[in-house]
Amino acid sequence: MLGLPGFRVLDVHESPTELVIEIETIAELVGCPGCGVVARAHGRTAVEYRDLAAFGRPARLVWGKRRWRCEEPRCEEITWTESSPAFSARCVLTNRAGAECCRQVGRNARPVTQMAAELGVCWDTVMDAVREHGEPLVDDPERVGQVTALGVDETSWLTATKDHPTLFATGLVDLQAKVVIDVIRGNSATDLGSWLDRQPPEWLAGVRVVATDLAESYRAGLDGRLDHAIRVADPFHVVRLGNRCLDQVRRRVQNQTLGHRGRKKDPLYRIRKLMLTGTERLEGPGLERMLLGLRLGDPDQEVLGAWLAKESVRDVYLADDPADAELLLDKTIEGCRADPVPEVGSLGRTLGRWRTEILNHHTTGASNGPTEGLNLLIKKVKRAGHGFRSFANYRLRILLHAGGVNWPAQRPPAPRIRTRSPR
Ligand SMILES: [Zn+2]
User: Fold this and answer.
1) Within 10 Å of residue 259's Cβ, how many Cβ atoms?
2) Helix axis angle, 369-385 relative to 235-258, nearest 10°?
3) Cβ pair 255, 269 in contact under 8 A
4) How far is the CA of 67 from the centre of ligand 1 (A)?
5) Residue 135: is its pLDDT beyond 80?
6) Cα 80 to ligand 1 centre (Å)
7) 73 CA distance to ligand 1 centroid (A)?
8) Residue 227 confidence class, pLDDT cut points 50, 70, 90
9) Which of 42, 231, 312, 419 is the one with CA 20 to 30 A from 345?
10) Sign, CA torsion 279/282/284/286
11) Burial of residue 240, with CB atoms counted within 10 A of its CB: 0-12 exposed, 13-18 middle, 19 or more buried
């Protein structure tokens, strides 16, 4: 019943809060680890461990650990306490309970507090077990093989408080296997560069495509390290750039014409979501409503201009043919640069700086699309963690959850008990 080979159950008693199981080893004849002479029993000490919950209650194992003594006078081993591979000397959890903590917190992104309450141990005990069982899985060289398409994406680690600004991290993703390779602290060129410097040259040589958002810091971090790889500007971020430009212009015009930030009844505020919707998804009445809002709230047609700019950025991705995309992008860049609205002009200049990378999407098909999906997984880990103070824990839990870890096989699946069919 215990499922621990080499042990027997002496007694089981229960309380409303837990199940207490007294156990001992079955070893009767033990040799001294120093000299091999048969050892003599030398009393017992009761040591308590937490095991997996049994029958709906946390289980406490009380192991009457034997002490042994060597009878050989010249031997240096005088006395010792027995041990078992099922128990760790440093941890109050049995190894199988520790492995389960790692699976629940790591693979299933469950909060540590939840596991701690379920087992009846403290937070640090659970987190120690996650580290003990999880770190080897994350460090396993088999976890990430050769990557041909690398995604680099910024993610926030800690949101701003009164003591520090928002702290960022950089996620590195295998775009083909859709797993997080690593998470590094910071989002600067040096942060990315020093990570790349730590990778084996032959691994870097195998990377064919790198997709990033439009951050100059990442471009600088890649320079000189992945020059052979094709750089791609991630479409999602390019389109978002157009959306942000439109939002900026709308807010400024709103402020200039009405003297305050957007309110529920303001014409531009009311159409803010309609304007961000792609034209192909805008139906007749929606389009009418948007144009009416623009006539009412946009006297100098600045917002209209930004809307057209945003649409022309999106059009680049509607074209399948690389030559068409190039033509559309060049028209967009030219049009935006010539635009007297400062925000639109700035959009044009940014697009111009990333022209090659934007067009590379059409020739390689690469995008950080998978990364955006992984960002959702990262958010799940962050919610479970309620903010991480330790970057090492943050990284470990993201990699356990989304890093393509080879989880050790549990026991084989139990035979199924059929549902009783209704009469
Ligand atoms: Zn001995």
Assistant:
1) 7
2) 70
3) no
4) 13
5) yes
6) 10
7) 8
8) very high
9) 231
10) negative
11) middle
pTM as predicted? 0.84
Instruction: Tell me the C-alpha distance between 356 and 416, whole Å.
Output: 57
Phi, psi at residue 8, to the nearest 5°?
-130, 155
Distance (angstroms) between ligand 1 centre and the Cα of 35 equals 4
> Measured in angstroms, how far is the CA atom of residue 407 from the centroid of ligand 1?
40
User: Alpha-carbon distance 180 to 136, whole Å?
Assistant: 16
Q: 12 is written with which tokens? A: 């089981």
| 14: its two tokens | 């229960």
Measured CA to CA, the distance from residue 391 to residue 393 in angstroms comes to: 5
Q: In angstroms, what is the span from residue 31 Cα to ligand 1's centroid?
A: 8
Q: How far is CA 420 from CA 413, 414, 415, 417, 423, in A?
A: 20, 18, 15, 9, 9
- pLDDT at residue 195, rounded to an integer: 95
CA–CA distance, 248 with 242 (Å, rounded to integer): 10
Is 351's pLDDT higher than 70?
Answer: yes
Residues 100 and 131: beta-carbon distance below 8 Å: no
Three-state secondary-structure class, residue 20: strand
- Sort residue 406 into left (φ over 0), alpha (ψ -120 to 50) or beta: beta
